[in-house]
From TrEMBL:
UniProt-listed InterPro entries: HATPase_C_sf (IPR036890), HATPase_dom (IPR003594), His_kinase_dom (IPR005467), HisK_dim/P_dom (IPR003661), HisK_dim/P_sf (IPR036097), PAS (IPR000014), PAS-assoc_C (IPR000700), PAS-like_dom_sf (IPR035965)
Gene3D superfamilies documented for this protein: 1.10.287.130, Histidine kinase-like ATPase, C-terminal domain, PAS domain
UniProt cross-references to SUPFAM superfamilies, sorted A to Z: ATPase domain of HSP90 chaperone/DNA topoisomerase II/histidine kinase (SSF55874), Homodimeric domain of signal transducing histidine kinase (SSF47384), PYP-like sensor domain (PAS domain) (SSF55785)
Catalytic activity: ATP + protein L-histidine = ADP + protein N-phospho-L-histidine
This protein's name: histidine kinase
Organism of derivation: Desulfotruncus arcticus DSM 17038
Domain Histidine kinase: 400-605
Keywords, sorted A to Z: ATP-binding, Kinase, Membrane, Nucleotide-binding, Phosphoprotein, Transferase, Transmembrane, Transmembrane helix, Two-component regulatory system
Entry's transmembrane regions: 12-32
Amino acid sequence: MMSNKNIFFGNRILLVVSLLLFLTVMLTVYLMSIIRNSELSLLHHQNARLDQVAYLFDQNLEGSLRDYLAKQNLNGDDREKQVVALGNYINGVINEVRREYPDVHIGLWYTDLDVYYDGTQRFGENYSLRRKKVFEAVLEQKSAVEQNVGEEEGGIVEVYKPFTRNGQVEGVIRSAEYLGETTYYAKRREIEYTVYSLIAMVVITGTTGAVLIFRQLVSQVESIKNGVKLLENDLNQTLEPAPGELGVIVEAVNGFAHKIADLNIYNETMLASIDDAILVVDVDGKIMIANNMARRLMFLPDDYRDKAYHELLPAGGPFVELINKTLDDKINYKDLHLSWANNGGGSVVELLISTAVLVGAKGREIGVVLLCRDITERMRLREKAQRQERLASLGKLVTGVAHEIRNPLTSISIYMQHWQNQSTPSPKALATINREVARLDAIVDQLLYFAKPAEAKLVPKDINSLIESVLSFFNEIHHGKYSLIRNLDPNVPQVWIDPEQIERVLVNMLFNAIQAMPEGGTITVSTGDNKVDGMVNVSIADTGCGIAKEHHGHLFDPFYSTRPKGTGLGLAIAHEIIQVHGGHIEVDSEVGKGTEFTFYLKTGEDV
Protein backbone atom coordinates (compact mmCIF):
# COMPACT_ATOMS: atom_id res chain seq x y z
CA MET A 1 0.00 0.00 0.00
CA MET A 2 1.31 3.47 -0.94
CA SER A 3 2.23 5.86 1.86
CA ASN A 4 0.64 9.28 2.24
CA LYS A 5 4.03 10.82 1.52
CA ASN A 6 3.82 9.70 -2.12
CA ILE A 7 0.11 10.15 -2.67
CA PHE A 8 -0.70 13.78 -1.96
CA PHE A 9 1.80 15.70 -4.12
CA GLY A 10 -0.98 17.73 -5.69
CA ASN A 11 -2.73 18.48 -2.42
CA ARG A 12 0.47 19.64 -0.72
CA ILE A 13 1.40 21.89 -3.65
CA LEU A 14 -2.13 23.27 -3.71
CA LEU A 15 -2.03 23.98 0.03
CA VAL A 16 1.30 25.84 -0.10
CA VAL A 17 0.37 27.87 -3.16
CA SER A 18 -3.10 28.66 -1.78
CA LEU A 19 -1.65 29.81 1.55
CA LEU A 20 0.93 31.93 -0.22
CA LEU A 21 -1.69 33.55 -2.45
CA PHE A 22 -4.15 34.05 0.44
CA LEU A 23 -1.62 35.86 2.66
CA THR A 24 -0.38 37.96 -0.24
CA VAL A 25 -3.89 38.95 -1.25
CA MET A 26 -4.95 39.75 2.31
CA LEU A 27 -1.89 41.94 2.92
CA THR A 28 -2.42 43.70 -0.39
CA VAL A 29 -6.08 44.34 0.41
CA TYR A 30 -5.09 45.67 3.83
CA LEU A 31 -2.54 48.02 2.28
CA MET A 32 -4.97 49.27 -0.29
CA SER A 33 -7.68 49.86 2.31
CA ILE A 34 -5.31 51.91 4.48
CA ILE A 35 -4.13 53.97 1.56
CA ARG A 36 -7.65 54.39 0.26
CA ASN A 37 -9.08 55.47 3.61
CA SER A 38 -6.23 57.92 4.11
CA GLU A 39 -6.72 59.40 0.66
CA LEU A 40 -10.50 59.69 1.07
CA SER A 41 -10.20 61.35 4.46
CA LEU A 42 -7.56 63.79 3.29
CA LEU A 43 -9.34 64.55 0.03
CA HIS A 44 -12.63 65.16 1.82
CA HIS A 45 -10.92 67.56 4.19
CA GLN A 46 -9.05 69.27 1.38
CA ASN A 47 -12.16 69.66 -0.78
CA ALA A 48 -14.05 71.28 2.10
CA ARG A 49 -11.13 73.59 2.81
CA LEU A 50 -10.73 74.58 -0.84
CA ASP A 51 -14.45 75.15 -1.24
CA GLN A 52 -14.32 77.50 1.76
CA VAL A 53 -11.35 79.43 0.25
CA ALA A 54 -13.15 79.76 -3.09
CA TYR A 55 -16.25 81.06 -1.29
CA LEU A 56 -14.16 83.62 0.65
CA PHE A 57 -12.49 84.79 -2.56
CA ASP A 58 -15.89 85.12 -4.26
CA GLN A 59 -17.19 87.23 -1.39
CA ASN A 60 -14.16 89.55 -1.40
CA LEU A 61 -14.64 90.34 -5.09
CA GLU A 62 -17.22 93.10 -4.93
CA GLY A 63 -19.61 93.40 -7.81
CA SER A 64 -19.24 92.46 -11.44
CA LEU A 65 -15.87 92.59 -13.19
CA ARG A 66 -17.57 94.05 -16.24
CA ASP A 67 -18.97 96.83 -14.08
CA TYR A 68 -15.49 97.39 -12.63
CA LEU A 69 -14.04 97.91 -16.10
CA ALA A 70 -16.88 100.27 -16.95
CA LYS A 71 -16.32 102.32 -13.80
CA GLN A 72 -12.63 102.57 -14.70
CA ASN A 73 -13.59 103.81 -18.19
CA LEU A 74 -11.62 100.95 -19.72
CA ASN A 75 -14.26 99.42 -21.97
CA GLY A 76 -13.05 101.31 -24.98
CA ASP A 77 -9.33 100.69 -24.33
CA ASP A 78 -7.34 97.87 -25.84
CA ARG A 79 -7.26 94.40 -24.29
CA GLU A 80 -3.79 94.77 -22.74
CA LYS A 81 -4.81 97.76 -20.60
CA GLN A 82 -7.97 95.96 -19.49
CA VAL A 83 -5.97 92.84 -18.56
CA VAL A 84 -3.45 94.82 -16.51
CA ALA A 85 -6.05 96.97 -14.73
CA LEU A 86 -8.27 94.01 -13.89
CA GLY A 87 -5.22 91.98 -12.85
CA ASN A 88 -4.15 94.59 -10.31
CA TYR A 89 -7.61 94.53 -8.77
CA ILE A 90 -8.03 90.70 -8.70
CA ASN A 91 -4.44 89.99 -7.60
CA GLY A 92 -5.01 92.29 -4.63
CA VAL A 93 -7.98 90.22 -3.53
CA ILE A 94 -6.01 86.97 -4.10
CA ASN A 95 -3.15 88.18 -1.90
CA GLU A 96 -5.60 89.11 0.88
CA VAL A 97 -7.04 85.55 0.85
CA ARG A 98 -3.53 84.02 0.80
CA ARG A 99 -2.62 85.79 4.03
CA GLU A 100 -5.21 83.65 5.77
CA TYR A 101 -4.60 80.49 3.63
CA PRO A 102 -0.95 80.60 2.54
CA ASP A 103 -0.88 76.95 1.30
CA VAL A 104 -3.83 77.37 -1.08
CA HIS A 105 -3.35 78.41 -4.70
CA ILE A 106 -6.19 80.72 -5.70
CA GLY A 107 -6.99 82.11 -9.13
CA LEU A 108 -9.72 83.41 -11.44
CA TRP A 109 -10.21 82.82 -15.16
CA TYR A 110 -12.09 85.74 -16.75
CA THR A 111 -14.02 84.68 -19.84
CA ASP A 112 -14.30 88.03 -21.61
CA LEU A 113 -10.52 88.49 -21.78
CA ASP A 114 -9.60 84.76 -21.72
CA VAL A 115 -6.97 85.40 -19.05
CA TYR A 116 -6.16 83.59 -15.80
CA TYR A 117 -5.20 85.67 -12.72
CA ASP A 118 -3.24 83.79 -10.06
CA GLY A 119 -1.70 86.60 -7.95
CA THR A 120 1.33 87.02 -10.22
CA GLN A 121 2.03 89.53 -12.98
CA ARG A 122 1.91 86.82 -15.68
CA PHE A 123 -1.06 87.89 -17.74
CA GLY A 124 -0.25 85.77 -20.78
CA GLU A 125 -1.61 82.25 -21.39
CA ASN A 126 -0.51 80.81 -18.05
CA TYR A 127 -2.86 77.83 -17.77
CA SER A 128 -2.67 74.31 -19.18
CA LEU A 129 -4.97 72.69 -21.73
CA ARG A 130 -6.33 70.47 -18.93
CA ARG A 131 -7.40 73.49 -16.90
CA LYS A 132 -8.91 75.12 -19.98
CA LYS A 133 -11.13 72.07 -20.54
CA VAL A 134 -12.29 72.22 -16.89
CA PHE A 135 -13.00 75.99 -17.23
CA GLU A 136 -15.19 75.30 -20.26
CA ALA A 137 -16.96 72.42 -18.48
CA VAL A 138 -17.84 74.67 -15.52
CA LEU A 139 -19.15 77.35 -17.91
CA GLU A 140 -21.30 74.80 -19.68
CA GLN A 141 -22.63 73.09 -16.52
CA LYS A 142 -22.77 76.29 -14.40
CA SER A 143 -21.84 74.21 -11.36
CA ALA A 144 -18.74 73.43 -9.30
CA VAL A 145 -16.25 70.73 -10.37
CA GLU A 146 -13.80 68.90 -8.10
CA GLN A 147 -10.67 67.23 -9.46
CA ASN A 148 -7.97 65.09 -7.89
CA VAL A 149 -4.81 64.66 -9.95
CA GLY A 150 -2.43 61.83 -9.10
CA GLU A 151 1.07 61.86 -7.66
CA GLU A 152 2.69 62.07 -11.12
CA GLU A 153 1.17 65.57 -11.40
CA GLY A 154 2.24 66.57 -7.90
CA GLY A 155 -0.88 65.28 -6.12
CA ILE A 156 -3.19 68.22 -6.80
CA VAL A 157 -6.65 68.70 -5.23
CA GLU A 158 -8.66 71.32 -7.11
CA VAL A 159 -12.07 72.98 -6.80
CA TYR A 160 -13.51 74.96 -9.73
CA LYS A 161 -16.56 77.19 -9.05
CA PRO A 162 -18.45 79.47 -11.42
CA PHE A 163 -17.99 83.21 -10.76
CA THR A 164 -21.52 84.55 -11.20
CA ARG A 165 -22.67 88.18 -11.20
CA ASN A 166 -26.05 89.57 -12.21
CA GLY A 167 -27.22 86.08 -13.17
CA GLN A 168 -24.35 85.58 -15.66
CA VAL A 169 -21.20 83.47 -15.32
CA GLU A 170 -18.28 85.86 -15.89
CA GLY A 171 -15.50 83.40 -15.09
CA VAL A 172 -14.30 80.42 -13.07
CA ILE A 173 -12.65 80.50 -9.61
CA ARG A 174 -9.95 77.88 -9.03
CA SER A 175 -8.64 76.92 -5.59
CA ALA A 176 -6.05 74.18 -5.32
CA GLU A 177 -3.61 72.60 -2.93
CA TYR A 178 -0.56 70.40 -3.72
CA LEU A 179 -0.36 67.26 -1.59
CA GLY A 180 3.35 67.08 -2.31
CA GLU A 181 3.81 70.07 -0.09
CA THR A 182 2.40 68.05 2.84
CA THR A 183 3.71 64.83 4.49
CA TYR A 184 0.93 62.69 3.01
CA TYR A 185 2.96 60.83 0.39
CA ALA A 186 5.84 60.20 2.76
CA LYS A 187 3.50 58.50 5.25
CA ARG A 188 1.89 56.46 2.52
CA ARG A 189 5.27 55.24 1.23
CA GLU A 190 6.26 54.22 4.75
CA ILE A 191 3.15 52.05 5.05
CA GLU A 192 3.73 50.58 1.59
CA TYR A 193 7.34 49.63 2.35
CA THR A 194 6.29 47.88 5.56
CA VAL A 195 3.58 45.84 3.88
CA TYR A 196 5.77 45.04 0.86
CA SER A 197 8.41 43.68 3.20
CA LEU A 198 5.83 41.38 4.80
CA ILE A 199 4.66 40.23 1.38
CA ALA A 200 8.26 39.47 0.31
CA MET A 201 8.77 37.35 3.44
CA VAL A 202 5.61 35.37 2.75
CA VAL A 203 6.56 34.84 -0.92
CA ILE A 204 10.08 33.65 0.01
CA THR A 205 8.72 31.24 2.62
CA GLY A 206 6.06 29.85 0.29
CA THR A 207 8.48 29.52 -2.61
CA THR A 208 10.96 27.61 -0.49
CA GLY A 209 8.24 25.17 0.57
CA ALA A 210 7.01 24.75 -2.98
CA VAL A 211 10.55 24.08 -4.27
CA LEU A 212 11.02 21.31 -1.72
CA ILE A 213 7.79 19.65 -2.85
CA PHE A 214 8.62 20.13 -6.53
CA ARG A 215 11.96 18.39 -6.08
CA GLN A 216 10.11 15.28 -4.97
CA LEU A 217 8.06 15.51 -8.14
CA VAL A 218 10.82 16.19 -10.66
CA SER A 219 12.33 12.70 -10.79
CA GLN A 220 8.96 11.10 -11.53
CA VAL A 221 8.13 13.71 -14.18
CA GLU A 222 11.54 13.16 -15.83
CA SER A 223 10.84 9.43 -15.97
CA ILE A 224 7.46 10.03 -17.59
CA LYS A 225 9.00 12.48 -20.11
CA ASN A 226 11.58 9.92 -21.23
CA GLY A 227 8.90 7.29 -21.57
CA VAL A 228 6.72 9.58 -23.72
CA LYS A 229 9.68 10.18 -26.06
CA LEU A 230 9.99 6.42 -26.51
CA LEU A 231 6.27 6.27 -27.39
CA GLU A 232 6.82 8.70 -30.29
CA ASN A 233 8.72 5.97 -32.16
CA ASP A 234 7.06 2.84 -30.79
CA LEU A 235 3.50 2.91 -29.45
CA ASN A 236 3.92 -0.61 -28.14
CA GLN A 237 6.26 0.68 -25.40
CA THR A 238 4.78 1.26 -21.92
CA LEU A 239 5.68 3.79 -19.23
CA GLU A 240 6.93 2.54 -15.89
CA PRO A 241 4.37 2.69 -13.05
CA ALA A 242 4.50 5.77 -10.78
CA PRO A 243 2.97 6.56 -7.35
CA GLY A 244 0.05 8.87 -6.56
CA GLU A 245 -1.49 11.15 -9.14
CA LEU A 246 1.46 10.54 -11.46
CA GLY A 247 0.51 6.87 -11.48
CA VAL A 248 -2.95 7.78 -12.75
CA ILE A 249 -1.36 9.90 -15.51
CA VAL A 250 0.97 7.05 -16.51
CA GLU A 251 -1.93 4.60 -16.74
CA ALA A 252 -3.89 7.07 -18.90
CA VAL A 253 -0.91 7.64 -21.24
CA ASN A 254 -0.32 3.89 -21.62
CA GLY A 255 -3.99 3.31 -22.37
CA PHE A 256 -4.06 6.17 -24.88
CA ALA A 257 -0.93 4.83 -26.63
CA HIS A 258 -2.49 1.35 -26.92
CA LYS A 259 -5.66 2.80 -28.44
CA ILE A 260 -3.66 4.81 -30.98
CA ALA A 261 -1.67 1.68 -31.88
CA ASP A 262 -4.92 -0.22 -32.45
CA LEU A 263 -6.31 2.62 -34.55
CA ASN A 264 -3.15 2.63 -36.67
CA ILE A 265 -3.66 -1.06 -37.38
CA TYR A 266 -7.28 -0.40 -38.40
CA ASN A 267 -6.24 2.51 -40.64
CA GLU A 268 -3.45 0.57 -42.31
CA THR A 269 -5.79 -2.36 -42.97
CA MET A 270 -8.46 -0.05 -44.39
CA LEU A 271 -6.01 1.92 -46.56
CA ALA A 272 -4.50 -1.30 -47.89
CA SER A 273 -7.92 -2.42 -49.15
CA ILE A 274 -8.61 0.84 -51.06
CA ASP A 275 -7.90 0.78 -54.79
CA ASP A 276 -7.14 4.52 -54.91
CA ALA A 277 -3.64 5.78 -54.13
CA ILE A 278 -3.60 7.89 -50.93
CA LEU A 279 -0.60 10.03 -50.01
CA VAL A 280 -0.45 12.35 -46.96
CA VAL A 281 2.31 14.98 -46.62
CA ASP A 282 2.79 17.24 -43.58
CA VAL A 283 3.49 20.99 -43.72
CA ASP A 284 7.25 20.31 -43.62
CA GLY A 285 7.05 18.26 -46.82
CA LYS A 286 7.50 14.86 -45.16
CA ILE A 287 5.47 11.84 -46.25
CA MET A 288 3.35 10.59 -43.34
CA ILE A 289 0.97 8.08 -44.97
CA ALA A 290 1.13 6.13 -48.25
CA ASN A 291 -1.10 3.11 -48.83
CA ASN A 292 -0.15 0.08 -50.93
CA MET A 293 -1.56 1.52 -54.15
CA ALA A 294 0.37 4.78 -53.65
CA ARG A 295 3.62 2.88 -53.06
CA ARG A 296 3.11 0.82 -56.24
CA LEU A 297 1.96 3.69 -58.45
CA MET A 298 4.59 6.19 -57.24
CA PHE A 299 7.44 3.66 -56.75
CA LEU A 300 7.92 4.50 -53.05
CA PRO A 301 10.37 2.45 -50.91
CA ASP A 302 9.26 0.69 -47.74
CA ASP A 303 11.05 3.26 -45.52
CA TYR A 304 9.19 6.24 -47.05
CA ARG A 305 7.89 7.64 -43.74
CA ASP A 306 9.27 11.03 -42.56
CA LYS A 307 11.20 11.54 -45.83
CA ALA A 308 10.81 14.50 -48.20
CA TYR A 309 8.21 13.84 -50.88
CA HIS A 310 10.11 15.68 -53.64
CA GLU A 311 13.04 13.28 -53.15
CA LEU A 312 10.98 10.07 -53.38
CA LEU A 313 8.19 10.83 -55.87
CA PRO A 314 8.93 10.27 -59.60
CA ALA A 315 10.61 13.32 -61.13
CA GLY A 316 8.61 13.18 -64.36
CA GLY A 317 5.26 12.66 -62.69
CA PRO A 318 2.59 15.25 -61.88
CA PHE A 319 2.57 14.55 -58.14
CA VAL A 320 5.36 16.86 -56.95
CA GLU A 321 4.01 19.91 -58.79
CA LEU A 322 0.44 19.40 -57.53
CA ILE A 323 1.58 18.98 -53.91
CA ASN A 324 3.77 22.10 -54.24
CA LYS A 325 0.86 24.21 -55.49
CA THR A 326 -1.46 22.87 -52.82
CA LEU A 327 1.05 23.54 -50.03
CA ASP A 328 2.27 26.95 -51.23
CA ASP A 329 -0.78 28.47 -52.93
CA LYS A 330 -3.50 26.65 -50.94
CA ILE A 331 -5.08 25.47 -54.23
CA ASN A 332 -7.28 22.37 -53.95
CA TYR A 333 -7.68 20.25 -57.09
CA LYS A 334 -10.77 18.13 -57.75
CA ASP A 335 -10.77 15.20 -60.20
CA LEU A 336 -7.93 16.53 -62.36
CA HIS A 337 -7.52 14.25 -65.41
CA LEU A 338 -3.85 13.80 -66.40
CA SER A 339 -1.91 11.49 -68.69
CA TRP A 340 1.49 10.27 -67.46
CA ALA A 341 4.17 8.28 -69.25
CA ASN A 342 4.78 5.88 -66.37
CA ASN A 343 8.43 5.96 -65.24
CA GLY A 344 9.60 7.14 -68.66
CA GLY A 345 8.52 3.88 -70.31
CA GLY A 346 6.29 3.40 -73.29
CA SER A 347 3.10 2.83 -71.27
CA VAL A 348 0.85 5.83 -70.61
CA VAL A 349 -1.48 5.78 -67.63
CA GLU A 350 -4.57 7.95 -67.26
CA LEU A 351 -4.90 9.43 -63.75
CA LEU A 352 -7.69 11.17 -61.91
CA ILE A 353 -6.04 13.26 -59.16
CA SER A 354 -7.46 15.33 -56.30
CA THR A 355 -5.59 17.27 -53.62
CA ALA A 356 -6.77 19.10 -50.50
CA VAL A 357 -5.23 21.03 -47.64
CA LEU A 358 -5.60 19.21 -44.32
CA VAL A 359 -6.82 21.47 -41.51
CA GLY A 360 -6.50 20.50 -37.86
CA ALA A 361 -7.84 22.02 -34.66
CA LYS A 362 -8.48 25.79 -34.61
CA GLY A 363 -8.01 26.04 -38.37
CA ARG A 364 -4.30 25.11 -38.25
CA GLU A 365 -2.95 23.67 -41.52
CA ILE A 366 -1.26 20.31 -40.90
CA GLY A 367 -0.52 19.06 -44.41
CA VAL A 368 -1.85 17.93 -47.78
CA VAL A 369 -3.62 14.77 -48.92
CA LEU A 370 -3.32 13.53 -52.52
CA LEU A 371 -5.85 11.04 -53.90
CA CYS A 372 -5.03 9.35 -57.20
CA ARG A 373 -7.03 6.84 -59.23
CA ASP A 374 -5.73 4.90 -62.22
CA ILE A 375 -8.52 5.16 -64.81
CA THR A 376 -6.54 3.79 -67.77
CA GLU A 377 -8.70 0.69 -68.10
CA ARG A 378 -11.88 2.70 -67.64
CA MET A 379 -10.82 5.08 -70.43
CA ARG A 380 -10.15 2.14 -72.75
CA LEU A 381 -13.60 0.70 -72.03
CA ARG A 382 -15.17 4.12 -72.59
CA GLU A 383 -13.39 4.57 -75.91
CA LYS A 384 -14.53 1.12 -76.96
CA ALA A 385 -18.14 1.95 -76.00
CA GLN A 386 -17.92 5.26 -77.86
CA ARG A 387 -16.65 3.48 -80.98
CA GLN A 388 -19.59 1.09 -80.77
CA GLU A 389 -21.95 4.03 -80.28
CA ARG A 390 -20.48 5.86 -83.28
CA LEU A 391 -20.87 2.74 -85.44
CA ALA A 392 -24.49 2.41 -84.31
CA SER A 393 -25.10 6.11 -85.06
CA LEU A 394 -23.49 5.68 -88.46
CA GLY A 395 -25.86 2.80 -89.22
CA LYS A 396 -28.81 4.99 -88.23
CA LEU A 397 -27.43 7.81 -90.34
CA VAL A 398 -27.03 5.61 -93.43
CA THR A 399 -30.57 4.28 -92.99
CA GLY A 400 -31.97 7.79 -92.63
CA VAL A 401 -30.06 9.10 -95.63
CA ALA A 402 -31.25 6.19 -97.77
CA HIS A 403 -34.85 6.74 -96.69
CA GLU A 404 -34.78 10.51 -97.19
CA ILE A 405 -33.15 10.37 -100.63
CA ARG A 406 -35.23 7.43 -101.94
CA ASN A 407 -38.55 9.32 -101.83
CA PRO A 408 -37.45 12.30 -104.02
CA LEU A 409 -35.62 9.94 -106.39
CA THR A 410 -38.76 7.78 -106.74
CA SER A 411 -40.83 10.86 -107.72
CA ILE A 412 -38.20 11.96 -110.22
CA SER A 413 -37.97 8.42 -111.70
CA ILE A 414 -41.76 8.21 -112.16
CA TYR A 415 -41.91 11.55 -114.00
CA MET A 416 -38.94 10.62 -116.18
CA GLN A 417 -40.75 7.43 -117.28
CA HIS A 418 -43.86 9.51 -117.93
CA TRP A 419 -41.86 11.84 -120.21
CA GLN A 420 -40.54 8.87 -122.16
CA ASN A 421 -44.08 7.71 -122.81
CA GLN A 422 -45.50 11.19 -123.57
CA SER A 423 -42.40 12.52 -125.34
CA THR A 424 -42.87 15.91 -123.66
CA PRO A 425 -42.77 17.03 -119.95
CA SER A 426 -45.81 18.73 -118.40
CA PRO A 427 -45.47 21.92 -116.28
CA LYS A 428 -46.66 20.00 -113.24
CA ALA A 429 -43.98 17.36 -113.76
CA LEU A 430 -41.27 19.98 -114.08
CA ALA A 431 -42.44 21.74 -110.90
CA THR A 432 -42.47 18.46 -108.98
CA ILE A 433 -39.00 17.50 -110.16
CA ASN A 434 -37.69 20.97 -109.26
CA ARG A 435 -39.20 20.72 -105.76
CA GLU A 436 -37.77 17.25 -105.15
CA VAL A 437 -34.31 18.27 -106.41
CA ALA A 438 -34.43 21.28 -104.05
CA ARG A 439 -35.40 18.93 -101.23
CA LEU A 440 -32.46 16.65 -102.06
CA ASP A 441 -30.15 19.67 -102.10
CA ALA A 442 -31.41 20.82 -98.68
CA ILE A 443 -30.98 17.32 -97.22
CA VAL A 444 -27.45 17.01 -98.59
CA ASP A 445 -26.61 20.52 -97.32
CA GLN A 446 -27.87 19.74 -93.79
CA LEU A 447 -26.21 16.34 -93.85
CA LEU A 448 -22.85 17.84 -94.79
CA TYR A 449 -23.18 20.47 -92.06
CA PHE A 450 -24.10 17.80 -89.51
CA ALA A 451 -21.23 15.52 -90.57
CA LYS A 452 -18.64 18.31 -90.53
CA PRO A 453 -19.90 21.59 -89.05
CA ALA A 454 -17.95 24.75 -89.78
CA GLU A 455 -15.32 25.70 -87.20
CA ALA A 456 -16.81 28.03 -84.61
CA LYS A 457 -15.22 31.49 -84.56
CA LEU A 458 -16.07 32.72 -81.08
CA VAL A 459 -16.41 36.42 -80.32
CA PRO A 460 -18.10 38.34 -77.46
CA LYS A 461 -21.65 39.14 -78.55
CA ASP A 462 -24.82 40.68 -77.09
CA ILE A 463 -27.26 37.79 -77.37
CA ASN A 464 -30.29 40.12 -77.11
CA SER A 465 -29.26 42.08 -80.21
CA LEU A 466 -28.75 38.84 -82.17
CA ILE A 467 -32.20 37.60 -81.12
CA GLU A 468 -33.80 40.94 -82.09
CA SER A 469 -32.23 40.68 -85.55
CA VAL A 470 -33.57 37.14 -86.11
CA LEU A 471 -37.04 38.04 -84.78
CA SER A 472 -37.27 41.12 -87.04
CA PHE A 473 -36.62 38.94 -90.09
CA PHE A 474 -39.07 36.33 -88.81
CA ASN A 475 -41.76 38.96 -88.20
CA GLU A 476 -41.48 40.27 -91.78
CA ILE A 477 -42.07 36.80 -93.23
CA HIS A 478 -44.83 35.60 -90.88
CA HIS A 479 -46.43 38.91 -89.97
CA GLY A 480 -49.94 38.62 -88.52
CA LYS A 481 -50.21 34.85 -88.18
CA TYR A 482 -48.02 34.41 -85.07
CA SER A 483 -47.75 36.51 -81.92
CA LEU A 484 -44.20 37.22 -80.76
CA ILE A 485 -43.50 37.93 -77.08
CA ARG A 486 -40.04 39.19 -76.14
CA ASN A 487 -38.93 38.63 -72.56
CA LEU A 488 -35.28 39.63 -72.89
CA ASP A 489 -33.29 40.45 -69.76
CA PRO A 490 -31.40 43.70 -70.48
CA ASN A 491 -28.77 42.89 -67.83
CA VAL A 492 -27.48 39.63 -69.30
CA PRO A 493 -23.71 39.71 -69.95
CA GLN A 494 -22.13 39.16 -73.34
CA VAL A 495 -21.67 35.55 -74.48
CA TRP A 496 -18.81 33.98 -76.43
CA ILE A 497 -20.39 32.60 -79.60
CA ASP A 498 -20.15 32.25 -83.36
CA PRO A 499 -23.05 34.58 -84.30
CA GLU A 500 -23.74 32.80 -87.61
CA GLN A 501 -24.00 29.37 -85.97
CA ILE A 502 -26.17 30.57 -83.06
CA GLU A 503 -28.41 32.36 -85.59
CA ARG A 504 -28.85 28.99 -87.33
CA VAL A 505 -29.88 27.44 -83.98
CA LEU A 506 -32.47 30.21 -83.41
CA VAL A 507 -33.88 29.85 -86.93
CA ASN A 508 -34.19 26.06 -86.61
CA MET A 509 -36.00 26.35 -83.26
CA LEU A 510 -38.33 29.10 -84.53
CA PHE A 511 -39.07 26.98 -87.62
CA ASN A 512 -39.95 24.02 -85.37
CA ALA A 513 -42.24 26.27 -83.31
CA ILE A 514 -44.05 27.46 -86.48
CA GLN A 515 -44.54 23.89 -87.72
CA ALA A 516 -45.97 22.94 -84.31
CA MET A 517 -48.65 25.68 -84.73
CA PRO A 518 -50.10 25.37 -88.28
CA GLU A 519 -53.18 27.41 -87.29
CA GLY A 520 -51.12 30.14 -85.63
CA GLY A 521 -50.22 30.79 -82.01
CA THR A 522 -47.81 32.53 -79.63
CA ILE A 523 -44.02 32.27 -79.56
CA THR A 524 -42.20 33.57 -76.47
CA VAL A 525 -38.45 34.23 -76.60
CA SER A 526 -36.70 34.81 -73.25
CA THR A 527 -33.16 35.35 -71.97
CA GLY A 528 -31.74 35.19 -68.47
CA ASP A 529 -28.49 35.25 -66.51
CA ASN A 530 -27.72 32.07 -64.60
CA LYS A 531 -25.20 33.50 -62.08
CA VAL A 532 -24.62 30.17 -60.29
CA ASP A 533 -22.85 28.49 -63.23
CA GLY A 534 -21.94 31.68 -65.13
CA MET A 535 -24.10 30.95 -68.18
CA VAL A 536 -26.81 32.76 -70.14
CA ASN A 537 -29.98 30.87 -71.03
CA VAL A 538 -32.13 31.44 -74.15
CA SER A 539 -35.65 29.95 -74.23
CA ILE A 540 -38.07 29.59 -77.19
CA ALA A 541 -41.56 28.49 -76.17
CA ASP A 542 -44.63 27.84 -78.37
CA THR A 543 -48.27 27.06 -77.76
CA GLY A 544 -48.40 24.25 -80.29
CA CYS A 545 -49.30 20.58 -80.17
CA GLY A 546 -46.43 19.55 -77.89
CA ILE A 547 -44.22 16.45 -77.94
CA ALA A 548 -45.05 13.14 -76.29
CA LYS A 549 -42.75 12.01 -73.48
CA GLU A 550 -41.61 8.89 -75.35
CA HIS A 551 -40.07 11.07 -78.09
CA HIS A 552 -38.01 13.30 -75.76
CA GLY A 553 -34.99 10.99 -75.65
CA HIS A 554 -34.63 10.94 -79.47
CA LEU A 555 -35.25 14.60 -80.36
CA PHE A 556 -31.57 15.28 -81.10
CA ASP A 557 -30.95 12.05 -83.05
CA PRO A 558 -30.29 12.61 -86.79
CA PHE A 559 -33.25 11.83 -89.10
CA TYR A 560 -35.59 11.42 -86.13
CA SER A 561 -38.68 13.56 -86.60
CA THR A 562 -42.23 13.57 -85.28
CA ARG A 563 -43.51 15.36 -88.44
CA PRO A 564 -44.29 13.46 -91.66
CA LYS A 565 -42.16 15.73 -93.87
CA GLY A 566 -39.43 16.59 -91.35
CA THR A 567 -35.80 15.63 -92.07
CA GLY A 568 -34.84 15.24 -88.41
CA LEU A 569 -31.58 17.16 -88.89
CA GLY A 570 -32.54 20.63 -87.55
CA LEU A 571 -32.39 19.81 -83.84
CA ALA A 572 -29.42 17.46 -84.36
CA ILE A 573 -27.46 20.32 -85.93
CA ALA A 574 -28.57 22.71 -83.15
CA HIS A 575 -27.42 20.19 -80.56
CA GLU A 576 -23.98 19.85 -82.21
CA ILE A 577 -23.55 23.65 -82.38
CA ILE A 578 -24.45 24.23 -78.73
CA GLN A 579 -22.08 21.44 -77.64
CA VAL A 580 -19.24 23.05 -79.61
CA HIS A 581 -20.03 26.28 -77.71
CA GLY A 582 -19.63 24.47 -74.37
CA GLY A 583 -23.37 24.63 -73.55
CA HIS A 584 -26.34 22.28 -73.49
CA ILE A 585 -30.03 22.15 -74.49
CA GLU A 586 -33.03 21.30 -72.34
CA VAL A 587 -36.58 20.43 -73.50
CA ASP A 588 -39.84 20.89 -71.61
CA SER A 589 -42.97 19.81 -73.47
CA GLU A 590 -46.49 18.58 -72.83
CA VAL A 591 -48.94 17.32 -75.44
CA GLY A 592 -51.64 19.90 -76.17
CA LYS A 593 -49.94 22.71 -74.23
CA GLY A 594 -46.75 23.47 -76.13
CA THR A 595 -42.99 23.06 -76.11
CA GLU A 596 -40.09 25.06 -74.69
CA PHE A 597 -36.48 24.64 -75.83
CA THR A 598 -33.78 26.24 -73.64
CA PHE A 599 -30.12 26.35 -74.54
CA TYR A 600 -27.25 27.65 -72.37
CA LEU A 601 -24.22 29.66 -73.53
CA LYS A 602 -21.01 30.52 -71.69
CA THR A 603 -20.09 34.09 -70.80
CA GLY A 604 -16.34 33.37 -70.64
CA GLU A 605 -13.74 32.79 -73.32
CA ASP A 606 -12.82 29.32 -71.99
CA VAL A 607 -15.25 27.44 -74.23
